[in-house]
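Please fill in the sequence for the structure shown.

STRUCTURE ENCODING:
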């Protein structure tokens, strides 16, 4: 209710983190949605997979670039250290490069495979959730290093 009463104000850091969440959601959801392009066309769903068309990899690469710039800005603005830069920003970069470089758009099974870390059917860890953990670990490392 704090938002409704006007107590909650967006700071300069809320915007980058909200933007990061939006960007990352579009990136991973678009990769996943590409497996349903034909069905989306048939039923008239307007997805980012269809919107981005043949330039999907390039557009997602630009979005990841914006995500990294925003992460770096948030780290700079909060005076994060090398742990944040290496773990949060570097980890996000490494994961994104791996994901976009190894993604086979023609293989429908590969769209889903980008969401799984392991090979087992019971593996609940998802590679895109891993990015959130990597960002958090960088923040935690920097926090613990100043205690």
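FILLED IN BY: designer on duty
SEQUENCE:
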């Amino acid at each position: 209710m704090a938002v409704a009463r006007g107590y909650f104000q967006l700071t300069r850091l809320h915007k980058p983190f909200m933007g990061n969440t939006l960007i990352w959601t579009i990136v991973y959801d678009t990769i996943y949605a590409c497996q349903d392009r034909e069905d989306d066309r048939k039923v008239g769903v307007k997805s980012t997979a269809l919107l981005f068309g043949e330039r999907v990899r390039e557009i997602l690469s630009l979005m990841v670039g914006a995500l990294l710039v925003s992460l770096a800005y948030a780290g700079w603005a909060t005076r994060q250290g090398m742990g944040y830069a290496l773990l949060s920003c570097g980890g996000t970069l490494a994961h994104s490069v791996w994901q976009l470089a190894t993604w086979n758009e023609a293989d429908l099974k590969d769209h889903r495979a980008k969401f799984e870390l392991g090979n087992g059917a019971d593996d609940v860890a998802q590679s895109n959730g891993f990015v959130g953990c990597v960002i958090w670990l960088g923040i935690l490392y920097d926090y613990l290093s100043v205690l």
